[in-house]
């Protein structure tokens, strides 16, 4: 779990750099989407830190929470697509892509 | 062109990604996926930017088989910056404009994809929301209670409260088991 949290921290730091670079480049909307992506790594880190050492929780609880996020965000994406809501389509896709990346880096033994 | 249109143009172009899209389109019409690849963006991000450019009237789209192809509206882009900047404000009553803006904000806050999130506590806001729901009723047409419920339920699950409120506010009128939109 320690390596996983370090990975999330690296993604958060890289995300903050991306946000700054995009803002500097005059790409405010893209910077806002980068903020959404970075926020997902922050949320996942917070969830992991909160659950990893809790009795009767641990990796299984983290994984279950990530799956709950995925279900909710997929539903939000479907809804945004149904209504042709261009901004929310990007937001929900960004969240799901970041979450898929997080899930792919979840410690092998705990998957 | 009105000052409002000019503002939409300047706002949509004050973003480097959209400027790059416009620059790419000066070379010819393009579809979303090609623009995404060229600009290293996801297709949905390109679609988001295209929507902003379309709203500003800078870009037009057409469907070609499975693709949405975008092209520049040169009639807008070929206007001089001087003419765009010198455009006149729309001739609307300021008070009416503020009211319309307030209505739009209330509707954006309380409705999501056509569904009412919650009944506003403030009466003024509540009336605005009920007026939106009232648009689903044809004025003068007689509805049964079941029909009224069937119209309100997809917007808000507690359709009984909304129905009663709309009668109380004089938006719907009840005569026995018949309902008519009166406002």
Descriptive tags:
heterodimer; A: 111 residues; mainly alpha; 82% helix; B: 183 residues; alpha+beta; Arc Repressor Mutant, subunit A; 2 domains; three-stranded antiparallel beta sheet; 10 helices; 54% helix; elongated
What does this entry look like structurally?
The complex is a heterodimer of chains A (111) and B (183). Chain A has 111 residues and is mostly helical. Chain A is 82% helix and 0% strand. Chain A has one domain (2-110). In chain A, α2 (28-51) packs antiparallel against α3 (58-82), α2 (28-51) packs across α4 and α3 (58-82) packs antiparallel against α4 (86-104). Chain B folds into 2 domains: 3-85, Arc Repressor Mutant, subunit A (Orthogonal Bundle); 94-181, no CATH class. Chain B is built from 10 helices and 8 strands. In chain B, the strands form 3 sheets. In chain B, strands 1-3-2 form a 3-stranded antiparallel sheet. A 3-stranded antiparallel sheet of chain B has the order 6-8-7. In chain B, β4 and β5 (115-116) form a beta hairpin. The model of chain B has no long low-confidence stretch (mean pLDDT 93). The interface between A and B is medium-sized, with 16 and 15 residues.
